[in-house]
Amino acid sequence: MESPFRIPFNRASFVGREWDYLEAVRASGDMAGNGEMTKRAESLVRTFLDASTVLLTTSCTSALELAALGLDLAPGDEVIVPSFTFVSTASAFSAHGATPVFADIRPDTLNIDEDRLEPLVTERTKAIVVTHYAGVSCEMDAIKTIAAHRGIPVIEDNAHGLYGRYRGAPLGAMGDFGALSFHATKNFSSGQGGALVITDDEAAERARIARENGTNRPAFDRGEVRRYTWVSQGINALPSELLAAVIVAQLEQREVVQARRRELWQRYNAELASWAAQHGAQTPTIPAWCESSFHLFHLVLSDESSRSRFMSHLASRGILAVSHYVPLHDSPMGQEFGGRSGDCPVSEDCAQRVVRLPLYYELSDAEHDDVLEAVISFNEFS
Ligand SMILES: Cc1ncc(COP(=O)(O)O)c(C=O)c1O
Fold first, then answer.
1. Quick count: other Cβ atoms within 10 Å of Cβ 172?
2. Which pLDDT score, from 0 to 100, does residue 225 have?
């Protein structure tokens, strides 16, 4: 079906040697996973993050699940998560036995509010999970201090933030675990895909096993055992070599993709500043000590009805702008875990007002001009 939108919100594209690498995998006849392309993709991420272990996974969700399996969760255990995030930041942990405890966000970066964390930590807290919204870091020093004080791990949901930095440190490698996404909407994509970054070597070996259905197949592959067998809880999270081939080709183009995204993002930011100030709309906040991954460009408009008119205005010009995240604590499943309306007021408020503009590698200058012109011509605020 043809899309009614001339300018979509996102478009995933091949940016380098994807076809060559896919052909190389086809020719090798070895497509299942954990082959040469998987190792190359893992090495590209590991080198940038300066991390000890990176495991490619089928998605960010499955990477988060591997982190959950590494926590040995038992019924009643709690995991603190932001309310304003994607479902799997919480569901990856609840699916493995934890009760999510929802934290509110800061109104500037829309990241988990480090000043509201402490009262949420209990004897049963097994981890704090943070999401670096839009690829701008959470306040990791404060969060890690709270976690270290209680001896609990920090897990970074870094679905948005590959190649972003916090005080010089790469996002995704600051916690005990970091999860990346190569979903079609992300800066680098194989349609579906992800990776888990792990600091501790013992946790890394457990994750390798968990990634292959809880079998000691990794030891078998290294020639350490004659047969592999079921040794722990696990899932099938190993991606095919075909997905890995696409990820390698994408990550090799990191500089050019990120340069274009940065250019588009900075132009939105510069050219919409006075329009936003005039109409009480908020442009993104990037603290001076953070480098963004330029994953998305969002605006927080003055109220929900203005947002809805704004989205219709852009749609009437063939441009798709989209809202973001229904706060998890207020979702039907979140309520089953004890979430109630009003628990996370900043998340509830921002969720009604956030809108994201088209931002993708192949967005042309002419299309970008059209989006800017459409935004600036909107003045039907409440
Ligand atoms: C913050 C966040 N976490 C996790 C995910 C899930 O990623 P995946 O689709 O790779 O499982 C997303 C996807 O959009 C996300 O935005």
1. 28
2. 97
- Give tens-digit pLDDT for 57-100: 999 999 999 999 999 999 999 999 999 999 999 999 999 999 99
The whole domain housing 320 covers 254-376
Pocket of ligand 1 (CB under 6 A): 59-61, 85-86, 88-89, 131, 157, 159-160, 181, 183, 185, 194
Question: Which residue from 64, 66, 88, 171 has its CB within 8 A of the most atoms of ligand 1, so it is best to mutate?
Answer: 88
- Note whether residue 178 is domain-resident: yes
Pocket perturbation via mutation, ligand 1, pick of 155, 162, 183 by most ligand atoms within 8 A of CB: 183
* Ligand 1 site-directed mutation target among 86, 89, 347, most atoms within 8 Å of CB: 86
152 and 185, same domain (yes or no) = yes
| Residues 150 and 185 reside in one and the same domain | yes
Written as one string, the DSSP assignment of 307-353 is: HHHHHHHHHHTTB--B-----GGGSHHHHHTT--TTSSHHHHHHHTT
Q: What is the pLDDT of residue 128?
A: 98
Note whether residue 4 is domain-resident.
Answer: no
Q: State in Å: Cα 129 to ligand 1 middle.
A: 13
Where a domain ends, among 205, 229, 252?
252
Distance in Å, CA 91 to ligand 1 centroid: 11
| Domain annotation covers residue 129 | yes
165 CA to centre of ligand 1 in angstroms: 19
Write the CATH number for 65.
3.40.640.10
The pLDDT value given to residue 382: 85
- Count of H-run helices and E-run strands, the chain: 13, 12
Q: How far is the CA of 192 from the centre of ligand 1 (A)?
A: 10
Q: Are 252 and 244 in contact (CB under 8 A)?
A: no
Would 152 be classed as within a structural domain?
yes
The answer on 266 and 198 residing in a single domain is no
Q: What is the pTM of this model?
A: 0.98
Residues 241 and 262 in one domain: no
Please identify every stretch of the chain with a pLDDT value under 70, giving residue numbers as ranges.
Answer: none
Q: What is the pLDDT of residues 102-156, one digit of tens each?
A: 999 999 999 999 999 999 999 999 999 999 999 999 999 999 999 999 999 999 9
CB 175 within 8 A of CB 157: no
From CA 262, how far away is CA 276, in angstroms rounded?
20
Q: Which of 182, 217, 252 finishes a domain?
A: 252
